[in-house]
Amino acid sequence: MQKGTIRVQTENIFPIIKKFLYSDHDIFLRELISNAVDATQKLKTLSSIGEAKGELGELRIDIKLDAEKKTITISDRGVGMTAEEVEKYINQVAFSGAEEFVKKYKGQNENNIIGKFGLGFYSAFMVSDKVEIFTKSFREGATAVRWECDGSPEYTIEDTEKADRGTDIVLYINEESKEFLESARVEAVLRRFCRFLPVPIFFEPKAGEEKKEDSPAPAQINNTQPAWTRKPSELTPEDYQNFYKELYPYHEAPLFWIHVNVDYPFNLTGILYFPKIKQSYEIQKDKIQLYSNQVFVTDEVKDIVPEFLMLLHGVIDSPDIPLNVSRSYLQGDPNVKKINNHITKKVADKLEEIFNKDRASFEDKWDSLGLFVKYGMMTDDKFQEKANKFHIFETASSTASEKKFYTLEELRLATETLQKNKDGKLVILYTTDPVQQDAYIKTAEAKGYIVVKLDTMVDAAFLNQMEQKWSDVHFNRVDADIADNLIDKQENTASVLSKDDEGKLKDLFNIQPANLHVTVEVKGLSVEAPPVVATRPEFMRRMKDMAAMQGPMGAFYANMPDEVTLTVNGNHPIYQGVLAENDQEKQSKTVLNLADLALLSQGLLKGSNLTNFINRSVELMGGEKKGSAVAEEAQ
Fold first, then answer.
1. Where are the domains of the chain?
2. Residues 345-399: pLDDT tens digits?
3. CA 365 to CA 372: how far, in whole Å?
4. I need a labelling partner for 459 at 20 to 30 A (CA). Which of 133, 208, 300, 468 fits?
5. Cα–Cα distance between 288 and 254 in angstroms, integer?
6. How far apart are CA 174 and CA 196, in angstroms?
């Protein structure tokens, strides 16, 4: 028996520090199984070049849980180790066997080797009181070796008996980590980290119990050839759909997908899916999984995937992204930025291709696609340049047959004569709520204007940014002013009322409901126009909308009273009767009701103001019911 002391190489102390910045102890299974995969892949490589003789047999990895003995065993049938190799690769911390192998056999499937730092094995001591290794090299005449360590620098190594080549690592789980003696917990970790590793992995959850005849055989927990590792030409649409179900069993089928396959200037494979999003509350980030040679690394990919594509689902895999490193190191890695830029270009090219080849399908998916496209245009200038060609505006029409879609340039052409202001800018009229703002939309459309729909959670910020990025474009919500003033301020049309009557009418409408700041103007509109039109000035409303999205930081502006302009139509015949009314109380109530009807159209009549409006309406109609009972019954 030999005794010795594990040598920690000083020059490698920093990789050790980085290695053990693990947030979760369950990472040990990933590391040890990755080592077992490496050992298996090495054997395949050596066999292919004639260095490993004989039949390989079944190459697999077995995980056995023994709750009675409090052990987890990871077994492989890979290259195994001699006593000298144990001394070199185990006893000298941070000397990477995988890294040395890659250098020696460069060009011969070395990308299948996972390990980089040679530190993964020591993650075992995060959960173990003691670790044993039983290993036998593939080399002819090799003697099996047993190694043992209790987590201190002291170890023992001795010859032992082992029938087959390969390595068994036995972990004696410590009291603090006894959760890993529960089969459900271990299986969950295996499926999280190892579900797509390239070597079959079998889990036997109750190895310590006496086997019964009907005991199930160990189950394979991984798919060794996931869709992203295969060539796109080998896959059918059904294959892509099935892989999506494997990743997200409870999600609705995706809109479409992008298969990424790059080998220069960096290695990158993967499949990115565009999910179907019906409501803003369905938006979920952290649905893209990052792998390195089929080893799960993380689902927090914000440094690798552009921010606006964090809403996508799927998998990306790159051996050029360092495994097990701190986030700051990841941000500084030059390959990360290259991969980020490539993914952006790939997505933009795919969207443009779909738009050009099948515009009808693209338009049909716009409710979900629009969110990605707009978010990207706001956050990535290069993407925005490409997206200008396929970003589309949907009209506010309520029926599918009347609905149309316009690119920016198409909208410029369609509105050339009617929607340019005196400064030569295109005025894009939009609605944030086609149902609530229906009356305003119809009035604008009656004048020949095109009204588009901008009703997603990102549109308030989107239109602000696009006004700066697009030349000669201004956005105006359809209820920001009376229809005559939506494009340019018009001179007042003469009303049939005298100046004195206009003044009286303005005074009658001088109301200030709670939480509203009301400005009154009297204009001579069409006799068909409503008696009062409530509008919300674009600038101040936009400021409040943006502030509301900023949380506590925007609370001051968000809580300011809403600004409303009441435009009284002096040409409406109702005012002849209002001004002639001798009963001042009835006159006042009529005016209040007209104002409330206008505010109701903007969704600004709430609480007690709404209750008062209902009660007052019943009174004016000659009803006998009074008080809150009327309001309760009406509501």
1. 2-220, 227-348, 493-604
2. 999 999 999 999 999 999 999 988 998 899 899 989 999 999 999 999 999 976 6
3. 11
4. 300
5. 14
6. 29
Question: Of 471, 466, 502, which Cα lies nearest the Cα of 381?
Answer: 466
How many C-beta neighbours within 10 Å does residue 293 have?
Answer: 23
Which residues share a beta bridge with 155? 4, 149
- Torsions phi, psi for 518 (to 5 deg): -105, 130
Question: What backbone torsions phi and psi does residue 557 show, to the nearest 5 degrees?
Answer: -70, -40
CA of 452: how far to CAs of 359, 393, 394, 464, 536, in Å?
Answer: 18, 6, 5, 16, 18
Q: Residue 627: what pLDDT?
A: 47
pLDDT for 557: 61
35 is in an annotated binding site: yes
Cβ atoms of residues 94 and 136 within 8 Å: no
What are the backbone dihedrals phi and psi of residue 56, each rounded to the nearest 5 degrees, phi first?
-80, -30
Ligand-binding site membership of 327 (annotated)? yes
- The gap between the terminal CA atoms of the chain, to the nearest Å, is 89
Residue type, 101: F
Write the class of the CATH domain 2-220.
Answer: alpha beta
Of the candidates 238, 179, 247, 244, which has an alpha carbon nearest to the alpha carbon of residue 24? 179
Q: Counting beta carbons within 10 angstroms of the beta carbon of residue 357, is it exposed (0 to 12), middle (13 to 18) or buried (19 or more)?
A: exposed
Is 167 annotated in a binding site? The answer is yes
Of 54, 55, 75, nearest in space to 64 by CA: 75
What does the alpha-carbon distance between residue 480 and residue 48 come to, in Å, rounded to a whole number?
73
Distance between CA atoms of 509 and 609, rounded to whole angstroms? 15
Question: Is 96 labelled a binding residue?
Answer: yes
Q: Is the pTM above the cut of 0.85?
A: no
Task: Tell me what pLDDT residue 94 has.
Answer: 42
Say what the pLDDT of residue 203 is.
Answer: 94
Please list the ranges in the chain whose pLDDT falls under 70: 5-24, 93-119, 207-216, 278-286, 322-333, 398-400, 491-492, 546-558, 623-635
The total number of residues written for the chain in this structure: 635
Instruction: Determine the angle formed by the axes of helices 499-508 and 584-601, rounding to 10 degrees.
Output: 70
Assess if CATH 3.30.70.1070 describes domain 493-604: no
Integer Cα distance of 45 and 102 in angstroms: 11
Residue 352 among known ligand-binding residues? no
Cβ–Cβ under 8 Å, residues 514 and 468: no
Contact (Cβ atoms closer than 8 angstroms) between residue 554 and residue 509? no
Question: Domain 227-348's class?
Answer: alpha beta
Contact status, residue 100 vs residue 60, Cβ threshold 8 Å:
no
Q: Inter-axis angle of helices 27-48 and 183-193, to 10 degrees?
A: 50
Residue 217 has a pLDDT of: 75
- Tokens at 290, concatenated: 């990052």
User: What confidence score (pLDDT) does residue 548 get?
Assistant: 65
- Supply the pLDDT for residue 114: 41
- What does each C-alpha distance from 222 to 81, 161, 203, 294, 296 come to in angstroms? 26, 31, 10, 11, 12
Round to whole Å and give the CA distance between 395 and 449: 11
Pairing of strands 562-569, 532-535: antiparallel
317 has binding-site annotation: no
Question: Do residues 192 and 164 lie in contact, with contact meaning Cβ atoms separated by under 8 Å?
Answer: no
Annotated binding residue at 146?
no
